[in-house]
Amino acid sequence: MARFVPAGTHTALVTPFLDDDDRSLDLPALRGLVEMQIAGGVDGLVACGTTGETATLTDDEYQTVVATVVAAANGRVPVLAGVGSNSTAKTLLTTHTACALGVDGVLVVTPYYNKPTQAGMKEHFLRVADAATVPVVLYNVPGRTGVNLLPATVAELARHPNVVALKEAAGSLEQVQETVRLTEFAFAVLSGEDALCVPTYAVGGRGVISVVSNVAPARTAALWRDFSAGRTEAAARGQVDLLPLIKALFCEPNPQPAKMAMHLLGHMAPACRLPLVAASDATRTALQAELRRLALLG
């Protein structure tokens, strides 16, 4: 069987909660979200990433969310699970759990808060890559973690047979290009910034792990499909058309606006777990306007 390497549009799923005192998991809404994404034409799903508020889930809830997404996808699209933490030992345990739950790959964020060096991050990822029974996707998001996984380090890690891709969310096209250059176009670099999808594709990127596709899966998936089919002007126009919605979705901490947008579309409550709260009235108004402009909301 060919090794799984993510390409195209992968949705970083929100985790729906009920609007009760405990913000309990809303599993029917989660299953509905999976169906919506697959119907919209996305190429894969990511459970329990940053957008999934994974830091607020208990171990049992984590397993429930991952298992639910794997079962709902039912092999129709690949499922990755976020497994990273600021402890290598804990990351290894979570990786073992995710692999046992039947995921197709694991997404491993750079360790946050303790600010490891490049050497420390390299050793962290190599330990995970050695232990994982599925392919490993690196995840670089300096704005949240306080560390930046540099292209030279990525190029070294890409030599490991189980490290197959990088989700790059540093917000730098120059850094994307340097990674593509050092890995000689032989390594899958995925955009981790919705506003830079098509620009990333244009310099050798192979897809996106997206927040906006929660809300607009068909439009987001069309960006990659158009670009990869040579319809570059259509891809560019689609990217520019989505930009105001993308800006609205990131005007407050993610996933507050995304959950409000999904609530406006009738898919789930806008509830987040503290310290995140439901998006403000101003954000709700901005989202309504953009959803109507894009004909996503009647």
Radius of gyration: 18 Å
Give the neighbour order of strands across the main sheet: 1-2-3-4-5-6-7-8
| CATH superfamily annotation | Aldolase class I
Query: Looking at the structure, what is the overall shape?
Result: globular
Compute the average pLDDT: 97
Structural class computed from helices and strand pairing = alpha/beta
Distance between the termini: 44 Å
Number of domains: 1
Q: List segments where confidence is low: pLDDT < 50 over at least 5 consecutive residues.
A: none
Oligomer: single chain
Order of helices and strands: EHEHEHEHEHHEHEHEHHHH
Return the CATH architecture.
Answer: Alpha-Beta Barrel
Strand % is: 5-15%
Major sheet details: 8 strands, parallel, barrel
Describe the structure.
This protein has 298 residues and is an alpha/beta fold. The protein has a single domain, classed as Aldolase class I (TIM Barrel). It is 45% helix and 12% strand. The protein contains 12 helices and 8 strands. Helix 9 packs antiparallel against helix 10. The longest helix is centred in the C-terminal third of the chain and has 18 residues. The mean pLDDT is 97.
